[in-house]
């Protein structure tokens, strides 16, 4: 990993940053005017978001601080940038900023730059290939906005691991908690495992003790607003102690490619392992024969040349898979690229005789740029703000809808806005129009981890729970959930263990209190 990080650092070493008319300038706290606002961004080991970022600011002089160090959670030595977008007409283009920071650089990963901000919006992002999801918008208004932040952070949790047919996690389960705050920024994230008391959350939790478990979680922003407590409920079971079958391991390489199949600018390698016996214990990779290291997240390789990634996995019974490998070539992008990316859209779903989409429509976008490579792809649904595209957009609200979309390549070329318009209608006999189609059954922020399946008449499990109805007390709500889940167990829709997880989520939700 250190070799890869050193390569990233050498490839992206650049002046720390600049504001118009000042040249490359790195300031210290002593140089800062006493009342000047300070805006701080931090980065850690993630490639999908900054660890923290401001959402609002006041116009005028400002000190921008960007830190990517061990103090901010970067334990791998990975380089990140803080770059302001000056190519999009919907954002301010008057601040030229491109700070490259690494825990290994001369500043220890911490930089300060003096800039002057104008009213409007500034888009920022990480310019290192493969880190394109690290982006956001800074809103500059006369009142600064953030001083009156009264909205708590949004917090979610994801449970992963090998599962049996009933949804139990084999050997262990991993819980990853994520928090976002568009106002003053996230200050702290906390978790409580099985009512042992809240503790600071710093990294994904791995729970390998057999039994039922509940993780509660919450976050507080820099204005002191604390989110409601959410929870995830799941069951861990022992793996097959007589398991003699090693895990199945696969690797996928993605990125923009030229006509010869070379990856332009960078390639990303994602490794996946499954084990239906005792469950996966460890996954490892070896990049260019540098030695095996633990695999924790997709690898981004942007050093030009031929590369080989070997990979293997070991289960909880000690069985290790055969070593697999993927080989690919990374080439430099075209520095004189003047051609914007090509964006295509695919609209799918069941249609009636008038070509309306019944119950829902799915919009899938893809972008291709054979020169410098696609930097990011964005969309806007029904006049809303542009959002980074990550997965197909499912629209199930009845009515007419419009999706706008565009892409920007690494050379800054932006495609023209594309547009697709369609209409969603409710199916005849559909008992639940605009159904809740989240992946799992969630009751007021408490995730049961039970798959949110369609029960056969257009209603999902989330629809049947009906958490938004009026209940005189929590006992009435729990009685309702018990009756619904008893019927679902009797019909074979859910198992007994899934019913227990749903009831526990209902108890934690506080609905009816």
Automatic annotation (TrEMBL):
One MF term in the entry's GO annotations: electron transfer activity
Protein name: Copper binding protein, plastocyanin/azurin family
Native source species: Saccharomonospora viridis (strain ATCC 15386 / DSM 43017 / JCM 3036 / CCUG 5913 / NBRC 12207 / NCIMB 9602 / P101)
Record carries keyword Electron transport: yes
Stretch forming the signal peptide: 1-18
Pfam families: Copper-bind (PF00127)
One biological process term in Gene Ontology: carbohydrate metabolic process
Residues covered by the Blue (type 1) copper domain: 69-140
